[in-house]
Specification:
The protein has 370 residues and is of the alpha+beta class. 39% of the residues lie in helices and 19% in strands. It contains 17 helices and 14 strands. The strands form 5 sheets. The protein has a 5-stranded mixed beta sheet, sandwiched between helices. It has a 3-stranded antiparallel beta sheet with strand order 1-3-2. Helix 4 packs across helix 10.
Length: 370
């Protein structure tokens, strides 16, 4: 049995948020970067105090994540989708079902688009997304390029496009001066790997950062259907141990059971960026039990940063530039005492430094529950 507070303590340590400041575990599952160039590097710098030695790719949920370059072969194999039915309709719309009706396997579509992408960058070019799509779309099966109302053109369907970049071995370079403009370039070549074995290893990594967990949380994290997640989960079942968390059954990997039981109570105040790995675990009700407060943390668009107090999500923050300084506004869920407010200054300084600000102004708004 493990109470909710023990799970929070385990994850705080596993995510490298304690004084040891490490990033290996979260890099094994990836650190989401949104807006491009804004969040992943900061999330890692807040953990280690250093710029990350990592690459940016479309990986988990086909979103941009930072990973170790050495993990790209494993990721490409693990995240290769053979059947479009494994992707939920909210991520791929009617396109996946349409492909199946045409007799086209999603894996075959990935291969065709990835091959065209490799041909485009073979001469050393680093195209933007629009340039890469514009060059690839005329070269592939017309059925892979539906009409896009927003763009006003036929082009490779977006979910297929993003997933194909990893299969093509492309990494992303963000222009920090204009983050919405990013380019693709070839990564260092990596050999093909075994998809089933790589999926199993990725599930183990997920459990190391997100355990105890359930298959439903794996489905949410990966952006796949519950049925697909259960297939991913099955090869590790013999390695798992049941853990009761406040009356509900979760599962932890046997190798993490001791660490779960021994996790020390977190302490201190941390400011973490939007889309930090800690908030992307798929069990929001466990992280923030109050439904009203969950709405403040996870927005329909443009999530704020989060405030951790002794490991608990205890507020949100946003930033704006004021000439050469950074203004950070914290909205705590409950009033913070002077010591806690002062403790937030350490991460605020790191955040300001990450955007080249000369300093910061830290403002605390009224508590949500005042």
């Amino acid at each position: 049995m493990a109470g909710r507070t023990q799970v929070i303590a385990y994850r705080f340590a596993a995510h490298g948020l304690g004084p040891e400041g490490r990033a290996e575990t979260v890099l094994a599952t990836g650190v989401q970067d949104y807006p491009p160039g804004r969040s992943a590097s900061l999330a890692l710098r807040l953990r280690t105090g250093q710029a990350p030695d990592a690459v940016l790719v479309h990986s988990i949920r086909a979103a941009m994540h930072m990973h170790r370059a050495a993990d790209l072969a494993r990721l490409a194999a693990a995240l290769r989708v053979e059947d479009g039915a494994d992707l939920p309709p909210q991520s791929i719309g009617p396109f996946g079902a349409g492909l199946a009706q045409e007799g086209i396997a999603f894996g075959a579509a990935l291969d065709e688009v990835a091959t065209a992408m490799r041909a485009v960058v073979a001469d050393g070019r680093s195209p933007t997304k629009g340039e890469l799509s514009g060059a690839v779309s005329p070269e592939v099966d017309r059925r892979l390029t539906p009409w896009c109302e927003g763009c006003g053109v036929f082009h490779v369907q977006d979910q297929l496009f993003r997933r194909a970049t990893l299969q093509a071995g492309l990494v992303i370079e963000v222009d920090t001066a204009a983050p919405s403009r990013f380019r693709y370039r070839p990564a260092e070549p990596f050999p093909p790997a075994d998809p089933p074995g790589c999926r199993t290893e990725l599930v183990r990594c997920f459990l190391a950062t997100s355990g105890p967990a359930k298959p439903a949380q794996l489905a949410s994290w990966l952006g796949i259907t519950p049925g697909a997640a259960r297939r991913w989960w099955k090869p590790v079942e013999d390695e798992l141990r049941p853990v009761e968390v406040d009356g509900a059954q979760y599962w932890a990997h046997a190798e993490q059971i001791d660490a779960l039981g021994a996790a020390a109570d977190p302490s201190g105040v941390r400011l973490l960026p939007p889309y930090d790995p800690l908030t992307e675990l798929g069990d929001r009700h466990l992280l923030v039990p109050d439904p009203a407060l969950r709405k403040a943390v996870w927005r329909p668009a443009a999530n704020p940063g989060i405030v951790l107090v002794d490991g608990e999500i205890a507020g949100v923050w946003r930033q704006r530039r004021k000439r050469d300084r950074l203004a950070l506004t914290v909205e705590p869920f409950d009033a913070l005492d002077p010591r806690q407010r002062a403790a937030a200054g350490s991460d605020a300084a790191t955040i300001a430094g990450s955007v080249g600000a000369s300093g910061f102004d830290l403002d605390f708004g009224p508590a949500f529950r005042s």
